[in-house]
TrEMBL record:
Domain DNA ligase D polymerase: 31-295
Membrane-traversing stretches: none
Originating organism: Micromonospora costi
GO molecular function, one term: ligase activity
Short name of one Pfam family: LigD_Prim-Pol
Name of the protein in its database record: ATP-dependent DNA ligase
Length: 323
DNA sequence: GATATGC
DNA sequence: GCATATCAACGCCGG
DNA sequence: CCGGCG
């Protein structure tokens, strides 16, 4: 019978997938079950990106179709929505982390401990996962520094690449190792494992210091100006991404656009020839099977933030008020 | 997508 | 049993 | 109150 729910074994768990034939990316002919199979195929990778991190779900339970939009604060209606708090009816093996928002309000957010949690979330229509840069073990001290190279409208991925190389060179000078990934759009994210010893404020200040250094080195390419109107350079280093409650879509997350592009972890050697549009729900499983996860080493060496904080101090950087 | 309700 | 409604994000700032 | 900011 078409449309019957399926039960999929994931490790020790059995996860129900309802409406497996439902079109999720109609232009690509991809169904909800195809999405589930994608996440299974990149399982080790996406679990590495999410494990034990408080994670916001971006749910598209009606699929991605022409004109579909996500609900916002002022417009409740929407075909999709973000979900910070644990969905009602979750199995008891879905773990959470208790996180605190800037206002002081709190929430119990999903913190995936095993791949079955990812698949359970996929059944709820989750395409993108937005993990905090912290572990459930210490939700106040980031263990990951995230650098967001955000191209302005009309700027191509290729223009971000030289900035990424300069970031890598600078990190290398400081003895730090970053790991790049495409966003699935035109941007690039660079992640760095750090010891969980510093506050969100210090981490944000560290990324601001790095951004300002890039601005000095590549004045024609880089801006760190928050206000769009004043961003007169092609690449914005978004240091506010290290603010509390700010998250980036994880590696292997699926963009809610017709082509089903995904955020693709890269080796540095791949960067010059990489094309974000080559990585999607269909192509990524083979790539992952062949070469594994380029971010496999991300957590192996945790770095000190001191070099960047010393730079921030030398520059007299105060983190501007967060907005 | 899941749940609660009302018929 | 089926149809219908409801819910599922964070917050601050400036005009 | 609404729009801008991610």
């Amino acid at each position: 019978m078409a449309g019957a729910a399926e039960e999929i074994r994931v490790g020790e768990r059995v996860v129900r997938v309802s409406s497996p034939d439902k079109p999720y990316f109609p232009e690509r002919g991809l169904t909800k079950l195809d999405v589930v199979r994608y996440f299974l195929a990149v399982g080790d990778g996406i679990l590495r990106a999410l494990r034990d991190r408080p994670t916001m779900l971006e749910r598209w339970p009606r699929g991605v179709f022409e004109g579909a939009k996500i609900a916002t604060r002022q417009d409740n209606r929407g075909d999709a929505f973000y979900q910070k708090r644990l969905p009602a009816g979750a199995p008891d093996w879905v773990r959470t982390a208790h996180i605190t928002f800037p206002s002081g309000r709190t929430a119990d957010e999903v913190a995936p401990s095993e791949l079955a949690v990812v698949i359970w979330a996929a059944n709820l229509g989750t395409l993108r996962f937005h993990p905090w840069p912290v572990s459930a073990a210490d939700v106040e001290r980031p263990d990951q520094l995230r650098i967001d190279l955000d191209p302005m409208p009309g700027v191509e991925f290729a223009q971000v690449v030289p900035v990424a190389h300069e970031v890598r060179a600078f990190l290398d000078e400081l003895g730090l190792t970053g790991y790049p990934k495409t966003t699935g759009g035109r941007g690039l994210h660079i992640y760095l494992s750090i010891e969980p010893r510093w506050s969100f404020g210090d981490c944000r200040r560290a990324v601001l210091a790095l951004g300002r250094e890039m601005q000095r080195r590549l004045p024609d390419l880089v801006t760190t100006t928050w206000w769009r109107e004043q961003r007169d350079r092609p690449v914005f280093v978004d240091y506010n991404q290290m603010s509390r409650d700010h998250t980036m879509a994880s590696a292997y997350s699926i963009r809610p656009t017709p082509r089903a592009l995904v955020s693709a972890p890269l080796a540095w050697a791949e960067l010059d020839d990489a094309r974000p549009e080559d990585f999607d729900v269909v192509s990524m499983p083979a790539r992952f099977a062949e070469r594994g996860d380029p971010h496999a080493g991300l957590d192996e060496g945790r770095h000190s933030l001191e070099p960047l904080l010393e730079l921030a101090d030398r520059e007299g950087l105060e983190a501007p008020p967060e907005r």
